[in-house]
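One thing: can you check what follows?
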Amino acid sequence: MAIATNGNWTAHEVRAWARSKGIEVAERGRVPTPLVLLYLARPDIVRDWARRQGVDVRARGRLPLDVLVRYLTRPEAVREWARARKIDVAERGRVPVELTARYLAWFGDLPVAAT
């Protein structure tokens, strides 16, 4: 699945990152897309995005969980996820709260605060 996972990463890097955060991950096989999305939500990328959105974030330290969740639930990310599952979603306007909740549930037990 190609949901916003473009970029330079390898399965080895994602697995090593996950283990360093205490996330259990298999030695072999596909790396779950939600795990890749968490890996790609690196603090520098999230901070840049937050500043462009007018969200006040510190230059250092742990990212606030609400900022990370806002980053992960960007409308374009939720829409792309929905389309990949053939869920009807409008091109523009607000994304329904129920759809965003389903998208966040897709992350399952992954600790969103791990990044």
